[in-house]
Structures are given as C-alpha cells and as structure tokens.
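Memo to structure team: turn this sequence into structure tokens by end of day. - J.P.
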Amino acid sequence: MTTPAERETASQHGPGPSGPTIVRTRADLRDAMAMWALTAPAATDRRAVVMTMGALHEGHLDLVRRARAEAGPGGQVLVTVFVNPLQFGAGEDLDAYPRDLDRDVSLLAETGADVVYAPTPDVVYPDGDPVVRVSAGQIGEVLEGAFRPGHLDGVLTVVLKLLHQTRPDVALFGQKDAQQLLAVRRMVRDLDLDVEVVGVPTRRDEDGLALSSRNAYLSAEERDSALALSRALRAGEQQATDGAGAAAVRATTSGILNEATDVVVDYLALVDPDTVEEVPPEHTGPALLLVAARVGTTRLIDNQAVDVVAPSDGNEPPGQEASRD
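Reply from structure team:
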C-alpha cells in the first residue's frame, strides 16, 4: 500500500515535461488507466474524459480545463481524438475534415490533459461498420437528425463505445452542440450508464462567432456573413427577455438571418431544452433557440438559451393585441 507521500508524488497527473501520454490502441489505453489506478488516488479524484474529433480550438480547451477541475488534483484527464466516420453522411466533409494531431497534443500539453487516446477507425470499429448501433430515437429525427439522417445515431454509437473504453467518472461536452448534448444525456439516463455528463458553455470569438473547427473553411467575406447567426440569436434572446412572446422571438431571429448575405438557413427552432420539441406560441419559461445554416459551402450550428418572459399588460405578443377600432 502506498504511503500518503508516495501517493502525493505519484498522483501528479498534469502533463509531464514531454506532455500527455499518447495511446493508439485499446491495450495501451487500458495500461495508461491502470497505471493511474495504481497510484491509489484519493476518493475525491476522478477520471474525466473529453471526446473530440481533433482540430482543437479554445472551445475544446475549455472542456479540458473544466475536466481538470472536475477530475481533482490527483485525477486523470483523458482526451479522445477520433474523426468518427459513422456521424458523417454521404457528401459530407469526412475526408476533408482538418486533422493535425501534433498540434492538438501540443495544445493539450498546456491545458492539463494526462492521456490522449487517438485510435484509428480499425481500432474503434475492428469489424468494420458495426451491425449493432445506438438509436437516438425521436431526438435523432428532428432538426439535425432531419437534415443529417443517422448523424446522431453515429454520435451516440461512438460515444457509448468510448465511454466503455475509457470508463470515466465524468464526461464533458460542449453546449454548442445542444441537440447532441441532450441525446447523450438521454442515452446515459435510458441505458443506466454510470457516468456524470457535464455541459460546458460555448466559447465565442470577440465578434460573437461560436468557435468551430469548420470555421477554418470560411473566407473573410463568409465569416462576416456568418456573424448573422450570433447576432440573430442575441436579438431573439432580447425579445424573450422583453416579454415579446415566443412568436416574436422566432420572427425577429428569422428576419435577421433572412437578410444576411450568403446565409442559407437549414432550420431555426425555439424548443423545449429537455425534449427538443417546438414550444407553443403561448410558452413562457426556459427554451432553447437553435439555428443551423450554410454559409458558402460551410455548415454552421449555434444556439442560445432563452427565458421567455410572460408579456406584461399592454405588451401582448404580436397578433394578440386588443382591437382599437
């Protein structure tokens, strides 16, 4: 049994001088996890996992920083880097998706990651495309699911596999992919998985654009057009706060998007944050404003949590004003 001094020395799980340990196979991953377990971490120390497809930006690094805090001083932070083919549809950017593992590892070394698990597809799917997959059910049939059939099924299948392989106490996901986060949380609840799921707020550039690995595809002019997404969401949030009503929230947001050059909207929705179902016009309380749009050839998503305030007297939602004839 290790002494407290030995445990304190052995449990310094921040990256060493050479950075985080990089593992490519399941066997090496198991060894890296077992080595941490042998240090007999304190009861409050946990393993935290962040799942990424690489091409890391500050939004990903926010997840890793939060993972470091969730894991505890002697905990283990494990980051997966895997471009999952199951979540890409025909004609999507699987082959073109940016990949730069050396850069990713360098960033993770500065952010507190202990282990980087970067498997190839034949490691994650040793028998090729899996016959048995996870279904996102109704959550996967609307919004992203309607425009990208099978996308959320592919996400949940790889998330479940990586949860089994990494066995974390806590898994962290970005709130920018709001429908994905909801689907993961529902899978964890419905399938009785023993892991805590933590959502981390969206990181934005100073101009308001939500960070995304796909932002690299945007030209300068397209990036300027893409700012309409965050601008529209902010305007919708203000309408909700002002008591204008759900219909006005949708109308204001839609109007800004429709006026934007090079922005083609896939969907705009004001939904229940627990079910992703559209809220009725009379809805008050929490809601989630979601948008997906194409700017040039780049598809972007964004969202904003809103609190739809009940209209005060004399401030009825549009279409409900009393007759003044």
